[in-house]
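Reopening: structure tokens for the zinc ion complex, inputs below.
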Amino acid sequence: MHLDFRPLFSGSTGNSELVAFDDTVLLIDAGRTGKLLDEAIKAQGFDMRRVRAILVTHEHIDHIRGVGVLARKYGMEVYASAGTWAAMAEKVGEIPARQRCEFCPDEDFYIDRVNVSPFSIPHDAAQPTGYALSCGGKKVSVMTDLGHTTRELLSRVEGSDVMLMEANHDIRMLTDGTYPERLKRRILSGKGHLSNEACGRALVDMLSAGRPRVYLGHLSEENNVPELAYSTVARMLESAGAKVGRDVFLSMTYPDRAAQAASL
Ligand SMILES: [Zn+2]
Ligand SMILES: [Zn+2]
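Re-run output (same inputs, fresh job):
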């Protein structure tokens, strides 16, 4: 069983990750235009016609912008929680009933041989979810757009070989920055976005489980800098006794281009 994971785009301008377990190719979110996602997939040596399903985390536009166009053009299934379906129905337009798949968060299901385990996350959306996918003893998870983590949440992604974890902002840059107070409060709230520091803490809490490859995702272009996100998380891991590059591998993601692939 071969696992391939490629964050195609990550950030407030659009999010999408490609996951392939052998021949089962899935997209988690499709937050750029259908055209851009088409090109991005092609550039990675994949074909959108091979994408079996799109798994949607929540209805914010940076996660669903291309969902309707791609579903109508290619006929793949689209999976989302009932709350997300209701909240995104208008924005994604008409999708044939046979392609509309609804799940209950915290209830596993299968796509081909891939076990999909969606879990509820705290975010200011209708019924947002993260995903843990596993097959053939390999596990990949995506946990982005959440205000805080809990032990229960971390237990869902623990043991992942590859994970994408949000490192949205540096708290100091956000609080000192130019965003309106209301927006700052929303981002910092328990249902907002995960800071570099909170991301680092969550990873430290999961240290004992395997040697994961971690992608830092959904970086704010206004309130974060890639080097700062990396060094904050790396420093926290190292002070907890982990060696970055040996016990845990850190990779960056980008708003406008694909990150380096994880292939195992
Ligand atoms: Zn987002
Ligand atoms: Zn969001």
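The first strand starts at residue 3 and ends at 9. The CA atoms of residues 152 and 229 lie 24 Å apart. Marking as resolved unless the reporter disagrees.
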